[in-house]
Amino acid sequence: MLDSQLKLHVPQYRDLWYRQQLLNDAATMDYNKGYDLDFRGYHKDSGCIDFPEEQWKNWYDWFIGQEPERFYAYITRSHDGKFIGEVNIHKSDTALWHEMGIILDAKFRGQGYAVEALKLLLEYAFVNLNIDAVHNSFEVNRTAAVRTHLAAGFKEYNKENDNIELLITREQYFSK
Q1: Which pTM does this prediction carry?
Q2: Which of 3, 13, 37, 126 is deepest in the core (most CB within 10 A)?
Q3: Domains of the chain by residue range
Q4: What is the C-alpha separation between 84 and 4, in angstroms, rounded?
Q5: 146-163 CB burial, b ≥16 within 10 A, e <16
């Protein structure tokens, strides 16, 4: 178990206001702008994603309490319980791993929280969910994200065109 200044907190339904706020914050979602993503609620100009209250129940029922297929949690500071971001993993439809995501509120970036949050997610994935591997992929020019994943223990799995794939296996996690 990590001795952490952060905790993972599975939100209650009433806490989804924070996810709505996070996904609608242009500074936080800036990394996500300018792509041709084909899903409802995505704003190409800002990277923000709509998460209206009428979608909360279906989203909550699909994500929360669905382990080991899916896991979602807020990243919270241990000393005050403040929400500072989110992490998630879900079983890939096409590969023998779980895909992951992390969003750290822009106000809390550059403070060492991202690596620690990723390590907490990996600990939960490998210890509690007993999964085989965790994978993430994104644009190679997101150098801070690449460094963060490598610092948390991920290895480069593939690099093609402008994208990088990072992977950490259960064996790699427990051999560190």
Answers
A1: 0.94
A2: 126
A3: 6-175
A4: 14
A5: bebbeebbbeebeeeeee
